[in-house]
# Entry
Amino acid sequence: MALAQFYLIILLSEEFCEMQYTFNNSEQSLFYDLSFHFLYLLIILLQEKGIKMPIKIGITGGIGSGKTAVAKLFEESGYAVFYADSIAKQLLAEDDKIKFKIITAFGKKSYVKGLPDRGYIAKSVFNNPEKLAVINSIIHPPTIRKIKKLCEAELIRNDMVFAEAALIYEANMQDIFDYVLLVTADEESRINRIVKRDNSDKNEIKRRMANQIPEEKKISRADFVIHNDGTLQDLESKANLFLSVFKSLAK
# Structure
C-alpha cells in the first residue's frame, strides 16, 4: 500500500487542504478539477500495479455535510453500509448492560416500558459536557465493537465495506478502518441544509457544531475528502469517482 499512500499524500496533504481556503471561487473550482484528474490517474496506476486488498472505509462529516447522502449512494451501488447512529439506537434499546448503565447514570425515566426515552436522555445531557461524556462512554465502545464485527463479517463475503459515523474522530474509532472519507462543506451551507431539513434553530445547530472537531482538523486527518458545496448531481459525481478509487484498492 505504500505506493497508493504516497499518491494520496501528494493529493490530499495538509498543505493542499489549507491552500483551498485562500482560493477564490474560480481558482477553487480549478483545484477540484485538477484533484479529480489526479484521482483518475491514481485509479489507472493502481490497476496497472495490481495493488489491492479487502478494505473497510469509514464515512464521516459534520452535521449537514452530506455524509449520509454519500453513504446512500454507495449503498445503492450494491455495497454494504453500516450506520453508527442506527446501531447505537439499537444497542440503547436492546442491550441490557447499556440499559443498566444509562438508568444508573440518568435515572429510571430514561426508559419507558422498556424502551429508551431519547427525548429525556437528550435533555439530560443538553449543555452539560460532563453528562455528554458519560453517555458517550457508555454508547461509543459497544457501538465501535459492533461496527468492527459487522465490517469484518462483511469482508468474508465481499471485498469492500463502508460504515457511516458522524463522530469517527471524536470517538477515536478511525483505526478500525483502512481509510476514512470525509464529506465536508462550508458552515453556511451546512446550517442552511439543516434548517431546511429539520426546521432547526440556527443557534442550536451552531451549538451542536461546536461539540464536533473543527472541519479543518478533520480535513488534515482524513485520507479522502469530498467538498460538498455544489448540487446533488455534483456530489453524486464526486462520490462515484471516489467509489472507483475504492474499487481499485479493494481485492
